Amino acid sequence: MSDVIYYIAMALFLIGAIGYGVFLYRTIKDKLRLTFDVLIKKNTLVLGGFSLGIVLSLVLFTVAFYVDPVTLSYVSSKEGLVIDAGHQFLSYFFIILFAVSMMAFITAFFYYFFFNNFEDKFRKWFKIIMYSSIPLMFVFFILMSEGNAPYLTYPLCNSLYIGKHGIKFINTYSHPEPFFIYESGSGYVLDGGISIAFYAVFILSGALLVFALSDHLTYKYYGKHGLLTTCFLIAFPMGLIGARLWYVVLDISKLGGSSHFVTNPISILYFNEGGLGIMGGAILGIISGVGVMLYFKYIKKNPDFTKMSYLRLADFIVPAILIAQAIGRFGNFFNAEVHGNEIPFSSLSWLPTFMQYNYQFNYATQISDLTQAYLPLSIMETITNLTGYFVIYFGIVKGLGKYHAPGSGVGWYLVWYGATRAFLEPLRYGEFEYQASVDTAYIMIAGGLAIVAFFIVFKILKDKKLWIFKNSTFKDEILVNEELSNKELLRNVIILGSFLLIMIIVITVLFNIW
């Protein structure tokens, strides 16, 4: 019964999502011919219908979860555990609210960013809906998860299996039957199917989000979409290669000749077996992206690129990488890897219940003392990376206005991420700790500070007309002038200072708990 409900829910979700996306895309193509009234009257019913299908599908997924034999077997195996009405209410009620807020966010996002022909008062409402939906989605998801948490099987699933045994969420490290079979000499292998790792999904989602954000800002400043597409299509795969090579180098530096990359060099190419170092991905991805952009500007002399200031581009593209890195860390969470050493389980009370339980696992092995858990480094880095993006872009790049030195956003990114890794790396659980990463983190901090200092000096010399070189890299023909008044600057400094003070207090409190 649960499989039937599960596949109905999946079909309904796909139909709703595809239909919603296609209809919205066609609407965007006709945006110049649509007024606000026509858009609302024409689209509300259709988009509402597809949204309702997505909401209903998520409800059916919840129904399938509660009648799934795996869930019922798990509940019956735990003494004193029953599926009660309170937890079911949390699951059903808040999954509906989560889905509604998610669809409201998506709709408002597209209307706000792609329908610039609307009056400002309408766009203001779209902006309000879009930004207010984000915290609501977060709160509703947490409350929904509290309903499911006691009945989930831990460690949590980390992959989607597609094969002869159907379509299921599984944990590949647990080697569950019938999805895995044991072969002599090869160990556990998938039985007639493929698995799509959540880690890969999170990395790709983070990269696409950063690309969409960068493309929007490029359009905002230079009036054209798609200028960064080629750059992304090259920089992203190069980033994956850099991440893999970084992991390989770290593994060899730690294990030497006993590393399986030394004993079996061909395994370097086995990306599907896991093993990526985000720091290496960021480094090679940035280098590749910069190379592509320089090629278009100086070799191809493409007019769309020659009129740009690459320093301005770097100020909003490079710090945004922190967002991708923050999202990518959720892959480590679902894999139950890259965590810290043991701490009291009670210290995780500030986290959602499902996270608390999952941090009792190292891959598929549960911690021996259930009063303990592992330090949640992946969540900590997600928080620090997201904080870093808002501090660098909104606090420094935009917040300082005319006092900001263009190009220094790159240096601040290196300083922030280097400091994050220098602080968190020594806290890692033994098998995940690499001294080389700590050393590189300090190099990133030093290099970042040098870059910041260089661009500050460059700005001073340029403003005083003492810079002896004239280079089109520093020209900016279309960029909107967003210089801030002293009043606005003071406001931004107060907001940024208050935000940092709150973050310091929160982190201090959490570490006191630990």
Describe the structure.
This protein has 514 residues and is mainly alpha-helical. Helix content is 65%, strand content 6%. It is built from 17 helices and 9 strands. The protein has helices at 2-29, 36-67, 69-77, 85-114, 120-148, 198-222, 229-255, 260-263, 278-299, 303-306, 310-317, 321-335, 353-358, 377-397, 408-424, 435-463, 486-513; strands at 159-163, 166-170, 180-183, 187-190, 193-197, 342-344, 361-362, 365-366, 372-374. The protein has a 3-stranded antiparallel beta sheet with strand order 2-1-5. Strand 1 (159-163) and strand 2 form a beta hairpin. The longest helix has 32 residues, at 36-67. It starts with a helix and ends with a helix. The mean pLDDT is 82.
Q: How far is it from the N-terminal to the C-terminal residue, by CA?
A: 45 Å
Mean pLDDT: 82
- H/E element sequence: HHHHHEEEEEHHHHHHHEHEEEHHHH
The helix tally amounts to 17
Features:
514 residues; mainly alpha; three-stranded antiparallel sheet; two-stranded antiparallel sheet; 17 helices
Set down the secondary structure blueprint:
Elements: H1 2-29, H2 36-67, H3 69-77, H4 85-114, H5 120-148, E1 159-163, E2 166-170, E3 180-183, E4 187-190, E5 193-197, H6 198-222, H7 229-255, H8 260-263, H9 278-299, H10 303-306, H11 310-317, H12 321-335, E6 342-344, H13 353-358, E7 361-362, E8 365-366, E9 372-374, H14 377-397, H15 408-424, H16 435-463, H17 486-513
Antiparallel strand pairs: 1-2, 1-5, 3-4, 6-9, 7-8
